[in-house]
Structures are given as C-alpha cells and as structure tokens.
Predict the 3D structure of the following.
Amino acid sequence: MVPFVRSALVLVSIYLVIQCGYTYDPLFPSSKYHEWKKLILTHHWPVTVCKMDGVHCKSPPKYWTLHGLWTDKTQMCNNSWHFNCTEIQGILSEMNQWWPDVLHPNQSQLWSHEWQKHGTCAASLECLNSQLKYFSKGLELYKKVDLNSVLEKSGIKPSTTYYQMKDIEDAIIHVYGVLPKIQCLSPQQGEKAQTLGQIEICFTKEFQLRNCTNEELYVTPKEPPTKWNSKNEDLHVCNNNLSTYYPPVEEF
Ligand SMILES: *[C@@H]1O[C@H](CO)[C@@H](O)[C@H](O)[C@H]1NC(C)=O
Ligand SMILES: *[C@@H]1O[C@H](CO)[C@@H](O)[C@H](O)[C@H]1NC(C)=O
Ligand SMILES: *[C@@H]1O[C@H](CO)[C@@H](O)[C@H](O)[C@H]1NC(C)=O
Ligand SMILES: *[C@@H]1O[C@H](CO)[C@@H](O)[C@H](O)[C@H]1NC(C)=O
Ligand SMILES: *[C@@H]1O[C@H](CO)[C@@H](O)[C@H](O)[C@H]1NC(C)=O
C-alpha cells in the first residue's frame, strides 16, 4: 500500500469508532421499527443527478454530496412524524453545502423526503431519534468518510477518459477496508460507457464500517418507488464489464 492510503486507513479506523447510545427493546424484537441491520451512507455525484433529471440543474457542486443516511429493510416507519425545517435551523448552512437538494438548491424537498422515508426508521436508535440528531449524524459520517479526498488521492477524478469499475472499487476498499455499493446510470443512446452515479458506504448500528453486502439470505421486499425528483432513469449496481464515465462538471 502506498503511504497515503495506509495513513488514511488508520485515520478512518480511528475516527469511525464513534460512541453513541444504542437501545434495543427485547420486548419488541420483531417490530417493524427494529428490523434494520445497517446504515447506508449514500453519496451521489451531482453531475449525474443533473444528467438523470435533465431539467433543473444550473451549476451542480463539484464534489460528491450526501443523498441520504438510509436503513436497510425498512422505509417510512412513521408517517405522522413530519419533517420540520425549524428543527435543523442550526445546521442549515452545512446542510446546504454537503447535503443539498441538487435539483432544487436551497430548498428542503430532499430533506423532507429523506426524513420521512429513512429518518423515521433510523430514529429507532436513541442517538438518531430527532431530526437534528439524524441529519447531524449524516453530516458527521460524511465528513469522517471524506469520500471526495479518498477518491482524489487515489487518482479517481472526473475525466473524459473512462475507468474500469475495479479501479474505482479497489480505491475505496483499500482505504476503508469494506465493500461499497457503487451505482451507475446505464449507457444512454449513443454512449459507450455507463455513468458513475452513487456510492454507498455502510455502517453497523454501532457506526462501525461494514461491507454493504448482505450476509443473510434475506430478500428485501420491493417497495413502491417514492421519488424526490422526476427522473425516469434509475441507477443500478454498476456493471463490471462496462467502461465507466465519471463526468466532469464542465461536461454538463
Ligand atoms: C410517530 O411520530 C409521532 C410524532 O412525532 C409520535 O408522536 C409517535 O409516538 C411516533 N410513533 C411511533 C410508533 O414512534
Ligand atoms: C417545528 O419545530 C419547532 C422547533 O422545535 C417548533 O417550535 C414548531 O412548533 C414545529 N412546527 C410544527 C408544525 O410542528
Ligand atoms: C443559497 O443560499 C445561499 C445563502 O443564502 C446563497 O449564497 C446561494 O447563492 C443560494 N444558492 C442558490 C443556488 O440559490
Ligand atoms: C467483507 O467482504 C470481503 C470480500 O468479500 C470479505 O473478505 C470480508 O471478510 C468481509 N468482511 C466482513 C466483516 O464481512
Ligand atoms: C460480465 O462478463 C462475464 C464474462 O463474459 C459474464 O459471465 C457476466 O455475466 C457479465 N456480467 C454482466 C453483469 O453483464
């Protein structure tokens, strides 16, 4: 391993031991609220988000932004717990910078969607049981993972030449020591490559890094899609056999 990778690995492993109360209620082991096993820190590449939407974007950020902090297996855990922007007033400038609604800048549509769909489920952990705690933890994990500098230091930069998926995946595995889930947009008409869109880094309920793969043979029930944007195309796990385009902002 090259030195920067080794030191990054050490830093990440130290940083990611985050203390946080975890409550498990033995009286309701199978309640919907407790079923989830991992937290998924989802980053998306704004240029690809804009490309998928096609309409709204003016000048997308030049860095990976947060899409969400998701729980696996559960969604929409409490429909009567509404998003309330006043509760996250104190972290609004950071939210706008690192967790922006790429398609609707300075608006709270994405946050409202993320809270209703994922935050209300994550809230079964005591340390995520308010909107301020949930969004603050997302920002905290995002900063500690620091995907932008990890990719850049590994030489994975937006480029007009294509990447092999293995190079992108290896860069991430070498630093974090766990398997990410990487999603792409299929080649559009006339394109030779898929487009890099989303990178997920997974955590245990104790906020330790873990593989994004499932070790249990559990099939996630298909939920009807709820979307915060109008995209027709969906991201899916990248195809290792295709070249991959990591589009520069200037290309948009
Ligand atoms: C759902 O959210 C509402 C509003 O915050 C709260 O009063 C209620 O206790 C929650 N329900 C559950 C099952 O947590
Ligand atoms: C939103 O949160 C603020 C601060 O906690 C509170 O004062 C206000 O009543 C809440 N609004 C609604 C509609 O619940
Ligand atoms: C969002 O708001 C900030 C601060 O109010 C402002 O500087 C920025 O230009 C706004 N961005 C957009 C895209 O409207
Ligand atoms: C993560 O996946 C890698 C590669 O499949 C495997 O070698 C490793 O044991 C897994 N780690 C955990 C903690 O499951
Ligand atoms: C990739 O190529 C291999 C070997 O040709 C093939 O077995 C595999 O199904 C392909 N995978 C996808 C996702 O197309």
About this structure: Residues 2-251 form a domain with the Ribonuclease Rh; Chain A fold (CATH 3.90.730.10). DSSP finds seven helices and seven strands in the chain.
